[in-house]
Design brief:
- Chain B: Keywords: Signal.
- Chain B: This is Phospholipid transport system substrate-binding protein.
- The complex is a heterodimer of chains A (about 90) and B (about 220).
- Helices cover about 15% and strands about 35% of the residues of chain A.
- The longest helix of chain A is centred in the last third of the chain and has 14 residues.
- Chain A has about 90 residues and is α+β, with helices and mostly antiparallel strands.
- Chain A starts with 6 loop residues before the first strand and ends with a helix.
- Chain A contains one helix and five strands.
- By secondary structure, chain B is α+β, with helices and mostly antiparallel strands.
- Chain B has one domain: Tgt2/MlaC (Nuclear Transport Factor 2, Chain: A).
- In chain B, about 60% of the residues lie in helices and about 20% in strands.
- Chain B contains eight helices and five strands.
- A five-stranded antiparallel sheet of chain B has the order 1-2-3-4-5.
- The longest helix of chain B is centred in the N-terminal third of the chain and has 45 residues.
- Chain B is globular, with a radius of gyration of 21 Å.
- The chains are: A alpha+beta (about 90), B alpha+beta (about 220).
- Chains A and B meet through strand 5 and helix 1 of A and helix 4, strand 5 and helix 6 of B.
């Protein structure tokens, strides 16, 4: 968050009901009650080809998240291979 | 007498239990139906009058404004876009941003409606069941004239029994987050001068980027 490490990813698992990923994070306790419910979790990459991490971007809603709550607004990772594929496809179309 | 009351109570209980699945089904379907109706209504008003609206863009803006007013929660969206800066803004700045954000978004959306060559906007028939009781998403597809299909998903939130759109994901790109990052960037550039940021606000949507998309 804002370039500061505020926690770590505990578990990454496949949610077989929805077939998307569920990530469990442990965050600093002092953040409890300070993360609005409309905050966003995005998968970001450090550097061009670096490691991936989860970036938290705070929302503006009055209700805040407590221990065990879920960040519902997300931004999935930009997959470089897919971007290249889409780029190639759009090039060949022209 | 006592027997009567008990029986009435029992009948009432049975009735309400029977109504439960109905109610659940209804609340599952409502966001989708709401969006479906809203888009159909808007498209009916535009259809065949594209050239007229291209010259009378303000009329189309008014139609789009009315249409979005019913389905979107602009106060919630604007607060979410301001994000961490929302708390320190004055009530005047907050409501001014709601107005500016809404106006500029409607301008952009209206221009998109008359300039982007789309063939069809369809709400998908197979919607994923909602994961949360008070949140839903409605999946749509925008089909361009060249046949390209762009997935669009509305995120809705249940507020006082009313479903309202609070975010839009276009081709995997979270627009709410995109605008929030834009607001954050502007605040940095203007030394956290709220009024300057609000006055200079214009939604930056890169159509190319949206077409390229984010994730899969």
């Amino acid at each position: 968050m804002a370039g500061v490490t505020v926690g770590r990813v505990e578990v990454i698992e496949l949610d077989t009901e929805w077939y998307d990923a569920r990530v469990v994070m442990e965050l600093d306790g002092e953040l409890e009650g300070h993360i609005p419910e409309d905050s966003t979790a995005a998968i970001l990459t450090a550097g061009l080809l670096g490691e991936q991490y989860i970036g938290l971007s705070l929302g503006g809603a009055p209700e805040t998240l407590a221990d065990g709550d879920t960040l519902r607004d997300t931004q999935s990772a930009l997959v470089l291979e897919q971007l290249i594929q889409q780029f190639v496809t759009s090039m060949t179309k022209e | 007498m006592k027997m009567m009351t008990l029986r009435a109570l029992f009948a009432g209980l049975v009735l309400s239990l029977m109504a439960l699945p109905l109610m659940a089904a209804e609340s599952d379907q409502r966001p989708e139906q709401m969006i479906r109706d809203s888009i159909k209504d808007l498209m009916t008003q535009i259809e065949g009058r594209e050239t007229y609206f291209a010259d009378n863009i303000d009329e189309l803006k008014a139609i789009v404004d009315d249409s979005l007013e019913e389905v979107a929660d602009f106060r919630y969206i604007a607060a979410s876009v301001m994000g961490r800066y929302f708390g320190n803004a004055t009530p005047q700045q907050r409501s001014r941003f709601v107005d500016t954000f809404r106006k500029t978004l409607i301008d952009t959306y209206t221009k998109g409606l008359v300039t982007f060559d789309y063939r069809e906007i369809r709400v998908l028939d197979n919607q994923q069941a909602s994961r949360y009781e008070d949140q839903a998403s409605v999946a749509m597809e925008v089909v361009a004239n060249d046949g390209s299909v762009y997935p669009v998903s509305y995120s809705l939130r249940l507020d006082n029994g009313q479903w309202k759109v609070v975010n839009v994901i276009v081709n995997g790109i979270n627009l709410g987050l995109t605008f929030r990052n834009q607001f954050d960037q502007a605040m940095r550039e203007h030394n956290r001068d709220y009024d300057a940021v609000i006055d200079g606000w214009a939604p930056e949507l890169d159509v190319e980027e949206l077409e390229q998309g984010g994730r899969a």
